[in-house]
TrEMBL record:
<keyword id="KW-0378">Hydrolase</keyword>
<dbReference type="Pfam" id="PF04493">
    <property type="entry name" value="Endonuclease_5"/>
</dbReference>
<keyword id="KW-0479">Metal-binding</keyword>
<comment type="function">
    <text>DNA repair enzyme involved in the repair of deaminated bases. Selectively cleaves double-stranded DNA at the second phosphodiester bond 3' to a deoxyinosine leaving behind the intact lesion on the nicked DNA.</text>
</comment>
<feature type="binding site">
    <location>
        <position position="111"/>
    </location>
    <ligand>
        <name>Mg(2+)</name>
    </ligand>
</feature>
<feature type="site" description="Interaction with target DNA">
    <location>
        <position position="81"/>
    </location>
</feature>
<dbReference type="GO" id="GO:0043737">
    <property type="term" value="F:deoxyribonuclease V activity"/>
</dbReference>
<keyword id="KW-0460">Magnesium</keyword>
<protein>
    <recommendedName>
        <fullName>Endonuclease V</fullName>
        <ecNumber>3.1.21.7</ecNumber>
    </recommendedName>
</protein>
<keyword id="KW-0227">DNA damage</keyword>
<dbReference type="InterPro" id="IPR007581">
    <property type="entry name" value="Endonuclease-V"/>
</dbReference>
<keyword id="KW-0540">Nuclease</keyword>
<keyword id="KW-0234">DNA repair</keyword>
<keyword id="KW-0255">Endonuclease</keyword>
<feature type="binding site">
    <location>
        <position position="44"/>
    </location>
    <ligand>
        <name>Mg(2+)</name>
    </ligand>
</feature>
<keyword id="KW-0963">Cytoplasm</keyword>
<comment type="similarity">
    <text>Belongs to the endonuclease V family.</text>
</comment>
Amino acid sequence: MYRPYHPPADPQLVRELTQTQQELRTHVRLLPLTHEPRFIAGCDSSFPTPETILSVFVVLRFPSLELVEKVYHTGPVEVPYVPGFLSFREAPNVLRAYDKLQQKPDIIMVDGHGIAHPRRMGIAAHIGVMLDMPSFGVAKQKLTGNFTEPAATKGSISPLTDKSGELLGEVIRSKDKVLPLFVSPGHRCDQATATRLTLACLRGYKLPEPTRLADHWAEEFKKELR
DNA sequence: GCGACAG
DNA sequence: ATCTTGTCGC
């Protein structure tokens, strides 16, 4: 398959972001949820133009999954995309979108990785720490770690581990014969909770409702801008 | 030195 | 992420 080429990143920038990332990491806490969520949020970002980012937050009632609110926020893109540092490019705008929510959620499902990251600080963990809110990530592509292909049937799961065997996340088949999802906890959440909620949010599509709707509305809001 | 690389 | 048509499989 075709492999993307990532242009060299500014060494100085990478050093600074790495330090910030490691500081944020000290705040991460992996714990089971204390109470069953009543509201779960989904968030995702898109780029109407190369220099503009549009972030969306949707809040669904849980476990009914009815959409109760959707908001978005747009702003200028100030940081380039560098593998492993996606959060610094998207999180600032995502947090502003979060501020616009009337109904704050009990937990946030982010489009991206949680601790299944080189330094255990994917965007889901980053956002969770910034808001000090429970969060977890659901990604469509692997960033780091190893795994064996889960069975082709919906609900099949296989672990995502690092070289030392540490569990980074779980690879979940959310729909029969469709590429699996990579689910990992972000902040104030554990793997069992992340996996359980992801499965509870499936409604016949590859993506669980929170991120699927956030994805959908990101596209709608984008059109709405022109 | 050779791959891998979220969105 | 984004740019894009037709096409294969259930």
